[in-house]
Structures are given as C-alpha cells and as structure tokens.
Design goal:
Helices cover about 25% and strands about 30% of the residues. The protein has about 160 residues and is an alpha+beta fold. It is globular.
Length: about 160
C-alpha cells in the first residue's frame, strides 16, 4: 500500500463517486459488464444509494494523489425495505468498492477500519454485509471479525461488532 492513501469522511458531493464504487462492488468480477448507468439500473442496486443523506447514512472515501480510489458506506434498512446483507433494523449494512487498479493494496482494509470506527463513534454496535463466497474480500472481512450468520445462493451474510475497529 502506498503511504499516499488517505481516508476522509464522504461529503454530499461524493455521491457520484459512491455510485461508481457501488458499480465496482457489484461488478467486481470485471468484464464483461454493462455500462455504469445500465448496471446500476437494476432495482436491487438502484435503491442502495437512492436518497443518500438520510439519517444514519455514513461513508468514507479513500484518496491517492488527491483522487478518489475507493469508498465504503453503511446504511440502515427495515424489515420491509432492505438489501442482501440485512439482519435487523439496528444493524446497518456495509457496501465497499475500490477501483480495480487499486485493489490488493490494503485500501479496502483502511476503508473498513475507518468505517467501523466511525460507526462505533456514532453508537452503532454491529454492522452487516453480503459477500460472494469467491470474492477475495471475504478474507478481509473475516480478518476484521466478521462472522457468517446466513447464506443466500452463492453469497453469505456476515456480521461484526464495531468494537473490533
């Protein structure tokens, strides 16, 4: 990892970049993949950042040479409106994406560590996420204390306590 990588809180102006990182997270396997707008048009993806800025929304951005290269965010859901890694209304779900050229450099760990710390400071006790079993990020999540609590198809739902941050 480069010493030049910094992690900062996301601002309202970062929503476009968060969408780009959602796209990277959803299409992490690479080509072939749809264009960004087409890829994020699927309802299961389009809702993930829709109306960003509601109570509890939290995100951090990684920058290298003052350019954004990754982001991690969390969002609270309800029993009737939620995403794949949902476990309970008081447990926000995490999303994370790192630009392909910057993967495997420790940026994901920096993002997750900072986001878990910010969540803990906000009073959140646990967080969840969904990850495909063949995604290399699974090992990162396990190393950060995430434990599998459910499975759906080829993905697992994982939960961690924020105190591990």
């Amino acid at each position: 990892m480069s010493a030049e990588v910094t992690i900062r809180p996301a601002a309202e102006a970062d929503l476009t970049f968060l969408r780009q990182m959602l796209y990277e997270a959803a299409y992490w396997r690479g080509a072939p993949r749809p264009d960004l707008e087409g890829g994020l048009a699927y309802p299961v993806l389009s809702k993930l950042l829709a109306g960003w800025g509601r109570a509890g929304d939290l995100a951090v951005v990684a920058e290298a040479a003052e350019e954004p290269v990754g982001a991690a965010w969390l969002r609270f859901w309800s029993d009737v409106d939620h995403s794949f890694g949902y476990v309970a209304p008081e447990v926000p779900e995490i999303g994370i994406g790192v630009a392909a050229a910057y993967r495997q450099r420790g940026i994901g760990r920096l993002l997750m560590t900072r986001l878990l710390g910010e969540a803990a400071r906000a009073g959140t006790l646990r967080v969840s996420l969904s990850v495909e079993r063949d995604n290399p990020a699974l090992h990162l999540y396990e190393s950060l204390g995430f434990e599998t609590v459910g499975e759906l198809g080829s993905a697992c739902t994982m939960v961690a306590e924020t105190r591990h941050a």
